[in-house]
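Hello again,

I reread your note about wanting to compare the complex against the isolated chains. To keep things tidy I'm splitting this into two emails, and this first one only covers the full assembly. Below are the input lines as submitted, including protein chains and any nucleic acid or small-molecule components. They are followed by the predicted structure of everything together. The single-chain runs will come separately.
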Amino acid sequence: MATIRNLYTSSNLFRQLGYSALLIGFAQLGMAQSSKVWPLQPGIYFPQAPVPGKWRKSVGVVFTTTPPELTEEIRVSVPAIDFNLQRGLSKNFYLTGRFQTQFVQSNIGVGFRWVKPFTNRLFMSAGYDITGWLGALQIKDVFSSQAFGVETFPNVSVGYKLTRDLRFTFRTEAIVDLYYRSQVGSLAVVYNRREVNGVAFTFMLEQPFYHQRHVSVGVRGAYSNFNWQLWSLFDTFDRNLFYPQLIFGFIL
Amino acid sequence: MKPVIYSLLGLLLVASLSCRKTYEALVPYDFTNLPGSGQFGTAVRAVTNGVYTVSNGASEFGDQVALKWTYLHNGADTSYYLSVFTGKDAAYFNLEGTSQTDSLVLGGYWRKLVNDQIGLAQLTLRVKHQGKLQLYKGQLAPGDTMVIDGLYGDKNSKLSHPITLTYNRPLNSRPFSIMAHRSGGRTSDLLPASENSVEIIKLASRLGATGIEVDVRYTKDGVPILYHDNTLNLRLIQKNGLMGPVEDYTYQQLSTFVRLINGEKIPTLEEALETVVNNTALNFVWLDTKYIGPMDKVQAIQQKYRQKALQAGRDLRIIIGLPSTEAVDSYKALANKENTPILCELDTALTRSLGARIWAPRWTLGPQTAEVQAMKAAGLTVFVWTLDEPEFIREFIGQNQFDGILSNYSPVVAFYHYTEQP
Amino acid sequence: MSMIYRRLQTTSWVVLLLLLSLAVQAQRPSSARRQRRLQAIEADTLTDTRRGPYTVVVTAGGGLSYYSTHLGVPAAIEQTRLSRFGTPSSLRVMWYPDHRLRVGLETGWTTMYSYRGQVAGENTHVYVSAVPILVVFSMPLGWLTGTDRSIARRMAITAGTGLYVNHSRLDYLGTVMTNTNSLGWMAAASYTYPIGRRFRIAGELKWFDAVAVENAAFTAELQLVWRAFSW
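Full-complex prediction:
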C-alpha cells in the first residue's frame, strides 16, 4: 500500500466550501436588498476599490503549514511578515502591492484589480498579480545556496457584505510559474518555462476588531507544485502539495 | 440577479475542480522471481547491458536510457532483473525474464518517481542483422545491433504504447558509488517497500544503487534498529496509538505494535546487514549515526558483518557515518578503532584529524572544487549527499569530481553516471 | 483510506455548518426593529470615537468526546476492546473587544481513544489523549449591542489553530508514556444562556483535529462563562 497517508486536507473540503459559498449566495438572493450604498470600510481582500487617489495598507502575519511530503516529521507553521499596499485609480480599478518576508527569503508582488459591484452587498473583482521571490542561505557545513523566481497569479474575488461591517471574500487564484533559478556554490539550474503550478483559494473575513481598528482574518489553501517559501528543500515532486495558510492583518 | 448566480456557479465550479488526488503507485506486475537465469544467461545479460537510443517512447522516457542487469540471491538460488534507467522524471523500469520459450521476452513495470505514474511493460530482445530486424536467439554476429522493443501501458490501460530501444554503446565503466538513501529510497516517493526496511534493501540494486545508506538508532533495551525519524509518526508507520521517540520503546514492544507504512517490521541492524550480505550485490553500506550515545554495539555488528562478507567472498564495505559532533564524540570514545572505517560529514580539517577515509559534504554547499581536490589528493574518497534534484545530479556527475552520490533517486544517478561519456 | 475520507467529510461538514450559520445570521428578516438597529449602527461606525468596554471572559467546561477518525489496532493484538469515548475538559480565556471579533487562548484535555487486548497471553493497553494549546477566534452571530434575548446574539462560532500535545501510554511488557506535538485546528459552535450579571452557561459542539498525528474528536461540552473583568 504505497500510499501517502498524510494527504490530509482534500478536494472534499474545498468542494464543501464551494457549496457553502453557493448556499450563502442563494440565501442572500431572497433577501430584500437595500438600495442604499453602504459606506466604504477598510479592507484589503474585499473586492472594492479604495477611493481614487487614496492609499490602503495593512501589516500582518501569514503562517504557512509545511507539507509532510517535504518536511517529513517536522510539521511546522512558518510565519512571514506580510505588508499590503493598495491605491485606488478609479472608482472600480486599483493597484495592489504585497511584500512578504522571512528575512532569509522574501517575496514582492504588484498587481491590479478591476471591480464589478452587483448590489450594495455583492462585489466581484478580476485581478492579476506578478511576484518575484528571492532566498539566500549561507550556513557553515550546510548551505551555500540561493534561488529566485517569478510567478504570476491571475485571480478572481467574490465579496459579500454579511452585515454592514462584516465582509466575506472568496478568492481563487491560478499560480503560474514563469522563471526559476537556483544555485549551489558555482552550479546553477534554471527552469525558464511558463506552466500552471497550482491553484489557491482564500476565505477571508474583514471587520472591525477593537476601537476603530479593522482586521483581515482568514485562511488560504494553496494546492501547488512549488512554494517559494520552501525553495531550500529542492522539492523534486511533480505533484501538487497542500499549503494551508492562516492570514491575520491589521488594516492601517 | 443572473450575474450573482453565474458568479456563484463559477465559484462552485472552481472549488469543485480543486480535486486533491490521493497519491499511490501500486505495482501492476507480479514478479515470478524465478530462480536461475532461464534463457537470459551470462552472455545474454552481458550484451544487453548498455546505453540505448530511444525511438518510440522518447517523449515519455527521454531519448536515451541505460540498461543494467542485477541479481538477488535467495539461499542457493539467484534471480535476475533488468533495470532501465531514464533521464526523464526519474523514470525506471524493473523487468524480469519471462518463461516464453520462442523468444527472449521481459516482463515488468515502469515507474516515474517524481509523480505517481506507473504501468506495465513487456519487451522483446531482437537483433538488427544486415539491416533486418529479427528475434534475438542468443547470438550476436559482428555488425549486429541489439534492439529491444515492445509495449508499455499506463495506470488505466494494458500494454498499448510502443517503445523501441536500440543499442548505442556500453555503460560508462568509471568506478562510481550510487548510494540509495534510507536503504533504497523515501517512503514519500511511493516505492513498493517502506524506507529502511529489509524489503527495500532487496530492491535497492534494481533501483540503480551500488550501495545503501541506512539510519541506525537504538531501542530502549539497546538493540540497533533501522529508523530515520526522531519519533514514531504516521509518515513512516501505520497508525497504532504509539508516538514519541523510538528510543523509548523496547525492541519487543516495537516488534509487536509497530509496522512500517507498507506493513513491514522495523528491522534490526543485524537483519539489514544479513540481507545485504546474503541476498544482494551491494558493495557499500553507510551506517548513518542517528543515535546519541555509545557506538560499541554498532561497531561490533559492523565488524561481525565485515567478517561474514569476507567469508562469503563479498567485496563489501560497511562504514560508520559521522554526521554530528555527538557522533564524532561517540567514535572517539571507542576503546579500539581498528577495522572501524568511518565517513565524516563535517569539515575537512575534522575529517582529516579523525583519519576518516571518506569525506561526505552536503550537496547544498556546491561542488567545493578546491576542497574536494585537496581531499582526493590526500587519498580520501569524496561523496556528496543527499542529492535528488535531477538537473543538479547531471551537473555534479558532469563535474566528474566526486566518487559517489547519495540520493533518493538512485535511478537518476544511475542514468547520468552510466550514460556519461568520458 | 475510507476512514480518512469519512473524517474529511465530517471536517468539511463542520466548516459547512459554520459558513451556513453565517448565512442564517445574514438573512434574518429585515423587521422594523432590525432596521432601527441598522440605523443605530450606521451612526456609530467609522465616525464613532467611543471606545470599549473591553472584557476578559474565562470559559471552563467539560463533557463527552467521540474519536471521529480512523484508528489502527495492531494485528498482533487479540481480544481487542476499543473505546472511542472520553470526557474532555477545556479552559478558554478570551478578550472581547468592542466589536464582534474575539480572540483568545484555549487549552484543556481530551481523550482520543484507547484499546485493550492480549498478545500471547500478555495484557496490553494503549491510551491516547491530547492537550490542545490553541489561538482561537470567535464571533457571536448577532451584533454585540443586541440583547441577550436574541437567539443569534447567544450563538457563537469559534475557530482556532495551534499545537496539540498528544500523549500516548502503552502498557505491554512495561509502561511507556510519551508526548508528541502536532499542529492542528479546532472549530466550534456554541449557545450561551445568561444566569447572572457576570455568569453565563453555554453548550458547545466542537471539533478537535491534531493534523500530523491524525487524531480528531468531536466533543459536546457544558461550559461556565465568567466575565472576569472589564475596562
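For quick reference: The interface with chain B takes residues 1, 70-76, 113-115, 119, 124, 126-128, 166, 168, 170, 172-174, 176, 178-180, 212-214 of chain C (CB under 8 Å).

B.
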